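Treating backbone geometry as a discrete language has practical consequences that deserve illustration. The sequence in question and its structure tokens are set out directly beneath this paragraph.
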Amino acid sequence: MKRGPEALTGILSIERLKATPGCPSVERLAKGPVACIECVEDIPCNPCEKACPFGAIRVGTPITNLPALDETKCTGCGQCLAICPGLAIWLLDATYSDTEAIVAMPYEYLPLPSKGDAVHALNRAGEKVCDAQVRRVRKTQKADGTAIVTVVVPKEHVMEVRTMRRRQGASSFEPTKQE
């Protein structure tokens, strides 16, 4: 495996992401919801392949291959998001509106946000990219405690936003005071 600047920082660059077999093309992003797999480690792992009901993710042999996305088969169902133990898969929808996009992300922090909450959308380095609004929060037993939080962001940030942070003053995020 070739090591780039992210080996020092742990942060995947956009250039490195676009070179991975799990990154959707610009053309596919323009067609609707699609998975974006940001797995760059040569480790034995393949739950994403098994989770995809459409066969859109292929790890193959050896099991240390990077997951490859077959754009023609991906429907954007999101079944792979919470299954990835590395939390390295997002669902992107650049067709949400003329000016906004959707980023659905695995999220394991508590308390969970609520639909309608205003949040800060963050990049891979944890830096604020823009403000966002929570569109949906989904938890399933199949995901073993990992929630999927879907946020609406300005369209130009769809490839940057990878997590979110609660905004101070948001009433649904106020911690319970311990007496």
